Amino acid sequence: MSSVLSHNKDQPRVRKTLSDSSTSSTASTKSQKHEKLSRLSSSGSSDVSNDSSTNHAESYFLRRENRLSARKKAEEESANNDYKKMYEKALATNHRLKSRLETSKQELAMIQDQLQRTQKGRAEDCSSNMLETEKKESWSIKKRITDLEEQLKVKAELNMENQRLKDENGALIRVITKLSK
């Protein structure tokens, strides 16, 4: 972890870690550097030890700034590369989905065509089936009609025979009553 050397004329040197100062933004870091540089230029060269410490602090801040700018550039480049990769990945996904959509559309068209052919075939089959069923129904109805006509004829014959037997029975009863007198 890097540390920042804080130096003030009246205060002793104090080391701060970057994690302590990370909450402050880069703008405050730049303002601190600017303050230190302005203090350096206003103090002149009154003390050789003070001058060497300011040179040391100044070089430290320049190195730090260079490192930060290099890191920032690397992050930007990696971010650009990441965006590029994401864009290429999205394009590949879009292309894959478009091809799947096309195949699905083709399959749908084939299935619809098969469905229409099947429905036409069924309609023809249904009409021929309906004719056959109608013929069968008509034949069964005609057969039933003929059976009913025969039954009517038999019934009429039975009624006539029944009437004849009644008449005969009545005649026999009269004959027996005349004979018994």
Automatic annotation (TrEMBL):
Residues 1-83 are annotated as: Disordered. It holds the Pfam family PRKG1_interact. Residues 61-83 have a biased composition (Basic and acidic residues). Gene3D superfamilies: 6.10.250.1820. InterPro entries: PP1_Regulatory_Subunit (IPR051226), PRKG1_interact (IPR031775). Residues 19-30, 39-53 have a biased composition (Low complexity). Residues 82-181 form the cGMP-dependent protein kinase interacting domain. The keyword Repeat applies. Residues 87-121, 148-175 form a coiled coil. One of its GO terms (cellular component) is cytoplasm. GO terms for molecular function: enzyme inhibitor activity; phosphatase regulator activity; protein kinase binding. Keywords: ANK repeat, Coiled coil, Developmental protein, Repeat. This is cGMP-dependent protein kinase interacting domain-containing protein.
